[in-house]
Amino acid sequence: MIVTMTGKRGRPTAEEREERHQRVLGVISRVIVEEGYGALSFDRVAGEARVAKRTLYSDFECRAGMLRAAVRRQHAYLDAAPGSAEDVLAAAIAVATSLLREEAVAFQRAVISAAPLHPQMATEFYASGPRAAQLFLAERMPHETAGEREDAAETLLSLMFGEYYRRRLIGITPAPTPEEIRMRAERAVRLALDGQPVASGRRQLVDAG
Amino acid sequence: MIVTMTGKRGRPTAEEREERHQRVLGVISRVIVEEGYGALSFDRVAGEARVAKRTLYSDFECRAGMLRAAVRRQHAYLDAAPGSAEDVLAAAIAVATSLLREEAVAFQRAVISAAPLHPQMATEFYASGPRAAQLFLAERMPHETAGEREDAAETLLSLMFGEYYRRRLIGITPAPTPEEIRMRAERAVRLALDGQPVASGRRQLVDAG
């Protein structure tokens, strides 16, 4: 008996393709987090996600492509950016919400573990993950030059994550609540933009929301 | 034939004990970095460092004790603190110099990898490492209350390490030169103390050195 995903022979619908794609991304992430990048292979993902290997080759081309797609999914805000080009705080909250989730922290942990053996993987991860987040924030910074905007975005990320993120990586601090994320983001935006170490807003921009 | 460390029967000298202790700490660090905390055991360390197990039990009591001693060695500045209680910059440089070294980054990487399986180890690591560094810096902060001093120290660490440390952990940035460490520390101290995102000193304190 032949059973296809569509229940009949023929090309899957767009919805079926999307469902399959999300299932594949879930398998990729799980293999990386639970067993490490070294365990990731087309054979493994094809088997666990119940898709044809040629479909995977067509979607991802290579193992690094699977990694990039899994990282990209963690940074979904990159696609669903809010309209205002000036809302640094909203962008900071979006980034922190994505990257402080347990799944994203576990993924970062797996990348750190595998990095010494897979330096190219680490480079791909950085470009499609943290560096993309930095550029996303930099675009929304008020500074004049691109260099200043990137510096400010790096400062903002360091303040939002920093030592707190170290505690998340070694698992001694639980995932933050949305309220905690907002507070971290507000404090970091204030200091990065205005240079105010203590939480007492000087800008309307930051006080909004 | 019986061969003792001293070449004759009797208690080892203080110098011999110190040499042995450093050799043991080197073995502990290497096992953790190369094979993970799960591979660390008294049998393993006794064999590789050529010391009696009862000596190890006497020195470290338990496996966590071996970890603490290895972490503590990375933070040697805690013992050799400079005299001035106000020299935040010198303290920041000492912390950054210790923790950005390749050995310390590799150690942190190993702790992150092992943390999900060994949560108690992660807690011990944090207390004897990063948290000790934070308190060391907090003692030198000019703020009035202990809470403010600890907050300022956490901000300083986040700015000095932050996203840069993420790049160190995934191995895409080489170990910094002493000059790069000084620049990172100066910039972080300025922003943490004075709230100046750009490098233009306002305080004598920071400009000194």
Automatic annotation (TrEMBL), chains A, B:
<dbReference type="Pfam" id="PF14246">
    <property type="entry name" value="TetR_C_7"/>
</dbReference>
<feature type="DNA-binding region" description="H-T-H motif">
    <location>
        <begin position="41"/>
        <end position="60"/>
    </location>
</feature>
<dbReference type="InterPro" id="IPR001647">
    <property type="entry name" value="HTH_TetR"/>
</dbReference>
<feature type="domain" description="HTH tetR-type">
    <location>
        <begin position="18"/>
        <end position="78"/>
    </location>
</feature>
<dbReference type="GO" id="GO:0003677">
    <property type="term" value="F:DNA binding"/>
</dbReference>
<protein>
    <submittedName>
        <fullName>TetR family transcriptional regulator</fullName>
    </submittedName>
</protein>
<dbReference type="InterPro" id="IPR009057">
    <property type="entry name" value="Homeodomain-like_sf"/>
</dbReference>
<dbReference type="InterPro" id="IPR039536">
    <property type="entry name" value="TetR_C_Proteobacteria"/>
</dbReference>
<keyword id="KW-0238">DNA-binding</keyword>
<dbReference type="Pfam" id="PF00440">
    <property type="entry name" value="TetR_N"/>
</dbReference>
